[in-house]
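The record is passed on directly below:
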Amino acid sequence: MVPLYLLVLCQICQVAAVYDMIQDSGVITARVGENVTLQCSSQDNTVTFIYWYQQILMGKPQLISVRMTQKSEVTISAEYQDRFKVVMQNKKGINDLIISDLKVFDSAVYYCGILHFNAVEFGQGVFLHVKSSQSNIQPSIHQPALMPLQLGQNGNLSCIVNSEPCAGGQMFYWLKQGGSQPAVVYPGEGWCSNEGRNCTSHFLVKSAGSSDPGTYYCAVDICGKIVFGNGTKVEIEESPNINCLLVYSLSVVLAVSVVVLLVLVSMMCKLKNKTCSDCKGTVSQHTCSAGSNDPNQDAHDLHYAALSVGRNTERHFPDNPPACVYSGLRITKD
């Protein structure tokens, strides 16, 4: 479970990965007494302040330094003034943090933050792992390099710790880094066997979504000594069942569309043929029905015409005479 203060801080400060800011990420390992430089730079002209924060495992973020981008003065918090120093170059936007004479308790996540349009935005963060050179305990952590998960699937990350037993016991953590969000530290569950020599820790990724991809580092605090694994990269893959269902659905929709289109075309052709047939039937009826030889034809339907026959009389018809000239002929005596 993510600590409540971290969730509140994320909401207030809008902690999304800043794409115009470059900061170290992942895990940096150093030994006690050495010096280390944590890099941070931003070339955004709208940035007014640059910050450095430190967050120990399961602790609250603490402000290390703050400075204005247009000035060379840096304000460093009192508890960090002895061994912490900020190196800057305004033209290149560099704001590196130098920690000298490292101590074991310097192991923590270090965030570089900028004030951008009245909102503090953080980089992804880098975990500084300080190893003790005086300890005889040489624990090791083994965890798988890759775990592919399907969208919505649960994943159980695990790591195995081999170490010498100690009176202080063990505490387990999981550090997630990557994607568009800053690094987050989660408490982990674990148990040990063989008098504390072999330990196992698990972390459950529930209903994997778009915010879960990244590298998950298993961390164990053994008698005040923090040990990190090499990290397990979690990748989200689309479920093949979902892909098959989508293909089948699209295929059915396409088939139905083709059938409906063919039915519509067939109906339109039939309607067109019927309309043409009706037109032809009407013309034929009006033109040629008068030439019927039905003997029972009603007298009222007969047309009479006077016939004048002469030798020198010609009947001229147009070039295209009608198909039927007389609808009927009846001879009467005076």
